Amino acid sequence: MGRKKAREKPRKVRSGLFLAHLVYESRRKISYRLKSGSEDRFLDVALVEMKGAILALVYTMRNGNVRFISFRPASRKERRAYAAAKPRYE
Fold first, then answer.
1. Residue 59 parent element (H or E)
2. 3, 18, 55, 66: which has the highest count of C-beta atoms within 10 A?
3. Long-range contacts of 67-71 (CB under 8 A, 24+ apart)
4. Is the pTM for the entire model greater than 0.85?
């Protein structure tokens, strides 16, 4: 990895975590409880207006802390579920 790419990566990670926090803290999100092995995981789907996209965040709680596992654009199925729930928010 060149020096330029090495310098850019932390900025991208920080901006990704900021957007993930927007999903986590959103009042207009839909949430699901997932089961993965022995730990409970949660899936939140929300519209992040600053990004103009519906995003999905998977996280778990460990020792009283939130641990983000996956952050990505919502799948087609997740976007449809969000759209179906949207009238409740308006």
1. strand 53-62
2. 55
3. 68/17, 68/20, 68/24, 69/41, 71/16, 71/19, 71/20, 71/23
4. no
Give the tens place of pLDDT for each residue, 12-59: 445 677 889 999 999 999 999 998 788 899 999 999 988 889 999 999
Report d(CA 46, CA 32) in Å as an integer. Answer: 12
Taking only Cα atoms into account, the Rg of the chain, rounded to an integer number of angstroms, comes to 15
CB 82 within 8 A of CB 45: yes
Number of domains within the chain: 1
Structure tokens, 49: 């207006």
pLDDT at position 23 is: 94
